[in-house]
Design brief:
D-Maltodextrin-Binding Protein, domain 2; alpha/beta; 16% strand; binds fe (ii) ion; 2 domains
Amino acid sequence: MKVPRIFSLLGFASLFALFLSDSVQAENTVTLYTQRHYEFDEKLHEEFTEKTGIKVEVVKATADELIARLEQEGENSPADLFMTADAGGLDRASKAGLLAAMPASLLESVPDRLHDPESLWTAITQRARVLAYSKDRVKASDLSTYEDLADAKWKGRLSIRSSSNIYNQSLMTTIIEANDAETAEAWAKAVRGNMARPPQGSDRDQIRAVAAGLADVALVNTYYVGLLENSSEKKDRDAASAVSIFFPNQDGRGAHVNISGVGLLKSSKNREAAAKLIEFLLSPETQAQYPNATYEYPVVDGVAWSEIQERWGKFKADEVPLKVLGERNAEAVRLFNKAGWE
Ligand SMILES: [Fe+2]
């Protein structure tokens, strides 16, 4: 009788240990579905794990691919957090009913405009979409607004990526919002007509095109200039030094500023750990790293800009409600198509 009893005790103990290690592991992992594609994020996750013991599992895809996956997985999704490189994706996830309110106390340091009123999502960084112009062939006084890019003086001189890119789509929502659909379509048609070549490549490639003399003005997110300027490739550093940054619409609504942000998922089984990651990303220490690593702007007030951001200078930002970027996305895509901007 003794032997089997020991066995059964051992069996119970090992089962219990298995159960314990499983639940400890689940509690110690946050699964992040993200659209962001920056090496620096991995470094941040390692830092977070070192600090808290919580591991970060990452799944990368476009915002719409991730939303489709979350809808398919439903309650069984392993995901805790959804992160995008654009406000529109957060709005779509929220409309799809995928997001849960995060503790409002997490968002106290984030200005109201940069988080959802019901705490379904928050911005983590900000990114301005601006003009990068040739120092040799363009004067700052030649530049003024996004709308002015439709002017015939830019014929054959613009370099801008495809309209399938979310950064262009979000800018387009603000052109519609500030004007009207008809004006926005005519604008897109004229800008497409002013391009030096058919839309192609990334934001970095548009800056390279200006540096190579293929075009005079590119429309890009500021941080790509920062990434090129600090690249290990001399070619990239040369490309960055061939351009200056211009913030459009400074006498009007301001330059277009999008966000990268994160939402807590309803499917999250591990909300406490997920909230800890959000808290870490919004902490003054982490916020202070972004301007020097990805050259994005912080969202928390009082966090210093990097040297390069100071050099680009202070600017007026378009304060259009961020939900417009989501709500008008389909319209923006339709108008781009009608205008023939590939
Ligand atoms: Fe980007």
